Amino acid sequence: MVTANSQPQVQVAPAPLPPGPPPLELLTPFERFNVRLMDLLERHAVPATERYLRTWGNFWMYFVTSRMLTGYGYERLAGVPTDAPILLVSNHRSYFDLYVLAVLLNRFTRLHQPMFCPVRADFFYEHVAGTFLNLAVGAGRMYPPVFREPSKAEFNKWSLAHLGELLRRGNVVVGFHPEGRRNKNANPYERLPAQPGVGKLVMDSWPVVIPVFINGFTNDFLGDVKANFQRKKRVLAVFGAPIDLTPFRGMSNRLASHKRIADRLLSVVYDELGAEERRIRSSLPHLPLDFEMPDA
Prior knowledge:
single chain, disordered C terminus
């Protein structure tokens, strides 16, 4: 009952049930091996892999990027609990974006929760070199995988449900790209359409959503490292305040709602933080390899 002095209660659907084991029967033998290995690390080795990432992983990545990399907006995260479930939503320009953002969170904020990032399976789960990089660079945290083949669509549904379960447990950061794929537009401020998956993830777990815009990396990692030491490159990351999800809490958990949430998240990333990054970049001294920004 709603009286003149009371507020209507927002009805939120109960959390989904845990997704159960992954549907490995849909995968090839090598893909099954990889999923079982990364799942084992997630369930039994997070303390060990976290020590590895916070020491060696954090050190080497910061060492090869620190001369070109600057973060902004850390003060906006001061009120986020250190054990909160966090959905870190970012634009996607290179394969290293989320890895670098994890390093920045660990170094410059109090948010040290273990981080997991879903990844396209094409390389990291289908080739030996991808397995090696997932272990050596990410300690198996590029998990769970997402497959391109329609025949593995049910596995992708499991992956999204598993991420939702991780967030409901708390004390974790899930890195996610609302666009669903790498943005190859020549103009880094021109976004791709938002995909509804991130909206479903929000409605299944209601985490703290932290937006961030990062710009400057390419997929030529060795070239970027060289430019870093030559001070010929600039990478800027702008963190935003947690996004207010209140307007979405009374919505039904369906595709149209998922898309509305995804559009809102991507709008904050590009229209607000991308614009802020652009203003910051334009105020700094020009570097030879800086992105030449088009006219507004």
